[in-house]
């Protein structure tokens, strides 16, 4: 199935046979069928849509493949994954993202790449300016479709499709379904074949889902404790950017190696933070759902939810950052009893257990309470208790009674009798 030009690179990436999603979508994509591909995180979705679509492209024929990502990190990651395969067949891939130098991106587009990977907002901006020309486009792929097809992404994706040829093939890929994926005829005027391998794909390794009960005031202390475990490294997810920045300011004064992937940061700062995490120079990478969506981090030991997510899709995608390609991992959620009850209702498919730190290790076994040691009173010996009696205390010696009254009376009578005349 894998083209001979791609096979050596594909095997170097750790594959010896196609994953279920790679096998299932290969022919439909090559045959210009519109596809909705649903597969677990870490199951090789990028190569699942990338390889069959690259096979169809003709070098020098203009932009033929457009891949949309919800974040600049995922866009650059996808570009980096596909570049070696594209180069093997004489194709060029470029990345176009927001918060980056738009002048430089326009110069890159002048080199006539066949594949453009980017964030929807910047691509719309370039298309409206006439710099991104889509008249030669064959296929649009919407990666992390459940996220991108929410506002404002939906309008941006629709704008790009309307600027493309009417017969442009479309592919939508995600680890979670959304109502939008069953309404593609309404929003894009197309019919699509849905290929769902989530229940039968077993590429994910063993992942333990732990809930650590703690008050809000002690969550940062838990992060600090986890960061000092041996061989520990984690993506730490926050429900909003304000909370992320507050925790980052606290960790700044503690002995924790961390980096921040914030939407408010410059592109170069975000790239440096991700690079430092991948090189294990930092232990914790603080992210929000959008910044962490789709990131492929090899053998990531753990994901930490600083706050329990409010949507099941968010938990699923967060959890999918660990346990990839057969590796094991942990998903640790911090919260109180109320959070725990809500989370169990939100994602009942996961075996959520209480988590503890015992002897410097994460475990589901509660620490054993230390027995109270009481010093026993010495028991009397058999001889003493049976045959001996405790000696009685001696009665105090009574003080002598001095009869002062008579003596004083005699002294008064004799007063002055012995005085010499």
From TrEMBL:
Q: Where is the Helicase ATP-binding domain?
A: 26-195
What Gene Ontology cellular component terms go with this record? cytosol
Q: Which domain of life is it from?
A: Bacteria
Q: Please name the PROSITE patterns in this protein's record.
A: DEAD_ATP_HELICASE, HELICASE_ATP_BIND_1, HELICASE_CTER
Report residue spans for region: Disordered.
367-421
Q: Which family does it belong to?
A: Belongs to the DEAD box helicase family.
The protein's name: ATP-dependent RNA helicase
- Specify the species: Lacticaseibacillus manihotivorans DSM 13343 = JCM 12514
